[in-house]
Amino acid sequence: MGGPILDIRGLEKTYKGGTKALAGVDLTINKGEIFALLGPNGAGKTTLIGAVCGLVNPTAGSIHAFGQDTAKNWREARRKIGLVPQELSFDMFDKVIRQVRYSRGMFGCPPDEARIEEVLRSLSLWDKRDAAIRELSGGMKRRVMIAKALAHDPELLFLDEPTAGVDVELRRDMWRQIDALRAAGVTIILTTHYIEEAEEMADRVGVINKGRILLVDDKEAIMAKLGRTEAHFTLAAPLAEIPAAFAHYPLTLEDGGLRLIYRGGDGTGKGKREVAELAQTLAGAGVAYTGLETRESTLEDIFVDLVERGEVEAAA
To answer: Core-most of 3, 16, 229, 282, by most CB within 10 Å?
Structure first.
């Protein structure tokens, strides 16, 4: 993985009326990585992308892309950036291939029919090249949006909720396409509500809420830092209190003493080891249980927890 391809410092955006969409965002994206930006509606994800792509004028802060200050060299930087927006936007009566050609020309690239064909084939659109866009399914229309974004061979690609509203099969297909783009050296930033996309694809994950970045880290580091294991022991007989022998475990009693709940670990396997030790200790102490359920926290658990706390300090 290379050095920074995008460096954002102190980025702020306040809209007319006083709505603060970005509140001092610092973010560095490395060349060749897939970065997932997670956040609820209204968190600032689309505004952040718009600022980098020249669609939104920041109130304060700086954006450097490919080593260039975008405020001074916006056109040069923008030629290397592709954007697949949330909203479908094209001439619905135009043919697929004409729209993709147009996008390539719009960024000043010379005509290249071989490259257009390559892009369309990679997205399973070649057979639909002469179809009017209005005749396509919703999933195919979204593929056309991706084709348009790739037509000028960007080095940095933004995917704003790329699989919103598409079926599971198409979503999986898009993940494969994203992986192929990364293999070709394209740096990808995607925003998503689908936590499994971040877990499946991303090298690093950022969480944004109310215009602030709450956390940015490697996916594995986030799981290790904020992950936990949860185990529910269903006891054969109720306990009035947790025996002293188990005092060093993070345990609580629920359901009238019939459920012993373990919440611990750190996402590195410690929780699983402790649950195994706890099961042995329970048996040795004569505390019988009739059932055991365990689960590891997911990025979704971490995301929800951070957003509910809503503070930058929550990530510390």
So the answer is: 229
Q: What residue ranges do the domains of the chain occupy?
A: 4-80+155-224, 228-296
Per CATH, is 228-296 categorized as 1.25.40? no
Angle at 4 between CA 74 and CA 303, to 5 degrees: 100
CATH fold of 4-80+155-224: Rossmann fold (3.40.50)
CB of 136 within 8 A of CB of 170?
no
DSSP state of 53: T
> What's the CA gap between 91 and 256, in Å, rounded?
64
Q: What is the pLDDT of residues 3-27, one digit of tens each?
A: 699 999 999 999 988 889 999 999 9
State pLDDT tens for residues 258-314.
889 988 876 566 788 888 888 998 988 888 999 999 888 777 787 777 777 765 443
